[in-house]
């Protein structure tokens, strides 16, 4: 008689954390302020205000927006604030920086609401592969928060996990 195959991983108290499950869904937009710069270097207030008044902000509805400018250009703070005021009625979130900054902020907000109780005295594996852009910071926040309550924390898959933390 053949012995029944038992999935020990499925029966274990192990919790698998897949950070892509915590990815904030919604369209992403990046706005480069260089489109409103004179000669690619200077932001002039009056033309900037006129261009913003004519821009179609509805396109950003329910989206997540990253505002950025070329590194060698100085953009006044009020310009970002003005853009934020136009985007506020439409976008879910607006940040200054590139797409990685946007993802970092969204994951940071998610971690702020994380219920650590589900990890209490349990072994946890944090998965590493993702089809979404999970910033490196999210992996750091995961280990830092989860290890405060977990029995152990590993990285990878159940069949080949790298141990990271074990409660003494």
3D architecture notes:
This protein is α/β, with parallel strands linked by helices and 168 residues long. The chain folds into two domains: 8-24 and 104-166, no CATH class; 28-91, no CATH class. The protein contains five helices and seven strands. The strands form two sheets. Strands 1-5-6-7 form a four-stranded mixed sheet, with helices on one face. A three-stranded parallel sheet has the order 2-3-4, with helices on both faces. A hairpin with a 6-residue loop joins strand 6 (152-155) and strand 7. Helix 2 (45-54) packs parallel to helix 3 and helix 4 runs parallel beside helix 5. The chain starts with 7 loop residues before the first helix and ends with a strand. The model has no long low-confidence stretch (mean pLDDT 92).
């Amino acid at each position: 008689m053949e012995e029944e195959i038992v999935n020990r991983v499925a029966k274990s108290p192990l919790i698998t954390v897949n950070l892509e499950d915590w990815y904030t869904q919604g369209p992403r937009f990046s706005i480069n302020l260089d489109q409103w710069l004179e000669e690619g270097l200077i932001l002039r207030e009056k033309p900037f205000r006129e261009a913003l008044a004519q821009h179609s902000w509805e396109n950003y509805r329910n989206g997540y927006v990253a505002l950025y400018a070329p590194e060698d250009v100085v953009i006044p703070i009020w310009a970002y604030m003005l853009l934020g005021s136009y985007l506020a009625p439409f976008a879910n979130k607006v940040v200054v920086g590139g797409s990685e900054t946007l993802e970092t902020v969204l994951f940071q907000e998610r971690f702020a609401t994380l219920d650590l109780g589900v990890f209490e005295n349990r072994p946890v594996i944090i998965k590493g592969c993702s089809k979404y852009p999970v910033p490196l910071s999210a992996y750091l926040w995961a280990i830092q928060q989860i290890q405060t309550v977990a029995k152990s924390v590993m990285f990878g898959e159940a069949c080949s996990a790298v141990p990271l933390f074990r409660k003494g």
